[in-house]
Amino acid sequence: MALQRHHLSFLVIIISSVACQCCHGTALKDPLDLFDEGYSYVDDGGTFKDYIKQSEDVLSLKKFDNLGDDYRSPSLKMVNVNDYGAKGDGKTDDTQAFYKAWHVACSSPSSGAVFVVPQKYYLLKPITFSGPCKSNIAVQISGTLEASDNPSDYSKDPTHWLVFDNVQKLSVKGGGTIDGKGEIWWQNSCKTNKKLALTFYKCHNLIAEDFTIKNGQQIHVSFQDSVNVNVSTLTVTAPENSPNTDGIHVTNTQNIQVSSSVIGTGDDCISIVSGSKNILATNITCGPGHGISIGSLGARESKEFVSGVKVNGAKFSGTTNGVRIKTWQGGSGSANSIQFQNIQMDNVTNPIIIDQNYCDQETPCKKQKSAVQIRNVLYQNIKGTSASDVGVQFDCSENFPCQGIVLQNINLQHEGGGKAKASCNNAKLTYIGDVNPHCP
Ligand SMILES: *[C@@H]1O[C@H](CO)[C@@H](O)[C@H](O)[C@H]1NC(C)=O
Ligand SMILES: *[C@@H]1O[C@H](CO)[C@@H](O)[C@H](O)[C@H]1NC(C)=O
Ligand SMILES: *[C@@H]1O[C@H](CO)[C@@H](O)[C@H](O)[C@H]1NC(C)=O
Known about the structure:
There is one protein chain. With 440 residues, this protein is mainly beta. The chain has helices at residues 2-6, 31-36, 47-59, 95-106, 183-187; strands at residues 77-80, 89-93, 113-117, 121-124, 127-130, 137-141, 144-147, 160-165, 170-173, 177-179, 196-201, 204-214, 219-224, 227-237, 248-251, 254-264, 270-273, 276-286, 292-297, 303-317, 321-327, 332-348, 350-355, 373-386, 390-395, 402-414, 421-425, 427-436. The model is unreliable at 1-71 (pLDDT under 50). The protein binds 2-acetamido-2-deoxy-beta-D-glucopyranose (NAG) (3 copies). One 2-acetamido-2-deoxy-beta-D-glucopyranose (NAG) binds at residues 19, 23, 28, 233, 260, 262, 283.
C-alpha cells in the first residue's frame, strides 16, 4: 500500500521539547502572531512570508468548524465500538469490531459521526482507518487501545499499528490511552525499519488532543503528508532506554501546531524531517529523550527541505540534546527560518547544537563537499544548565557554512557550576543582548 513506499524516508529527526512551567504569558497567544514577530532580522527572500500567508489561509477559522465538539447535535451519528462486537476485555481481538464500526462512522452521510471507544481495554492488531469519509469524524477515545504483541500479526505491514489514512476533518481526543506494548520490539530494535504506533497519513484539518500514548513500538505519533494539524495536551511516555521511540514525528507535513504536551521517551521528543513547513511548538515539556530535532536531513545524498519552524516555550530536563539541527554530509536542500525561543534547559547534554556532520551508521561517514544549507536560525531567551561543558555547538560545513545564526539573550551554565563553553565551526553568527557562552 501507499504507506509502505514512504516509510523509508523516515530517518528520524526528533525535536523534543519539555513542557514548560516557565512559559511566559505570551507563549500561547495566537500562534500565527508568534510566527509573525521577530522574523525581520534576516531577509529570507520572502519565502517565510509566503508560508505565513498560506497558513493564515488554511488555518483560518471556518475551516475547522463542525469538527465534533458539539456531541449534542442530533444530526451527529454516534457509533460505539461495543455495538459492533468489541468486547473490551483486553484479551479478545477487537480489530474486526473496530473495522465494522469505522465503516459505519465513515460512511455516515449525516453532518458528522462520533466513533466512540468507551472506558475499557481494547486489544487491536494493526488497523487502518481509511478515508475519505462522508462527513467529519470525531474519534472519542475514553478507554485504552492495546497493541497486539504477537509479531505474526504484523507480518503484512511490519511498520504500522494504528493508521488514519486520508481522513479529512478528523479529531481524535477523549482522555484515553494508546498503548503500543513496545517491550517486545525494543529488544530486537531495527533502525532501518521504523515501527509507528499511531500514524496520520494524508489527513487534512486534523485535531489530535488530550490523550496519552505510551510504550510505542518505536515512533509514537507520526504526522505524514498532512496539512493543517493541531496537536495539544498529549502525554507521550516510554522508558529512557527504549530505542527509537520518538515522541512526535513530523514528516512532509505543513501547518502543524503542537502545544501543551509532555513527552518523555528514549529518542527524540519531537522530530521534524523533510518536506515539513510552518511548524509551531509551544509549551512543550521534554525529558528524558534526545530533545527537539530538525533532521536528520540529507541522508544518502538526498535533497531535503524544512522551513518555518518555531519552538516557543519549552523545557528540557536531562535530555541528550535541547534544540538540534542535524544534517548528513553529501546532502543538499536547506533548513531555513527556524526560531527557538523561551526555552529552559535543565542538565541537557547539548542544549544548543547544529551538527552538519551527522553520521548515524556503523561505518564512519566519508568527507563530502555538498551539504544541506542551514540558514536563518534564531536562538532567543534560552537559559539553564548544560550537562556537558559545551553548551553551544555549531559544527557547520566548510563549503556551506551556517548563515544568519542569531543568538539573543542566552545564558547557559555548566550543571556542576562554572561556565559552559561554545564551540563554533563555519558559522556566521550575530549576537544580541547578553549571550553566554560566546564562541571563542
Ligand atoms: C487550530 O489552531 C488555530 C490557530 O490557533 C485555530 O485558529 C483553530 O481554531 C484551531 N482549530 C481547532 C479546531 O482547535
Ligand atoms: C502547558 O502544558 C501543560 C501540560 O499539558 C498544561 O498543564 C498547562 O496548562 C499548559 N500551560 C498553558 C499556559 O497552556
Ligand atoms: C546531569 O546529567 C548527567 C548525565 O546526563 C547525570 O550523570 C547527572 O546525574 C545529572 N545531574 C543532575 C543534578 O541531575
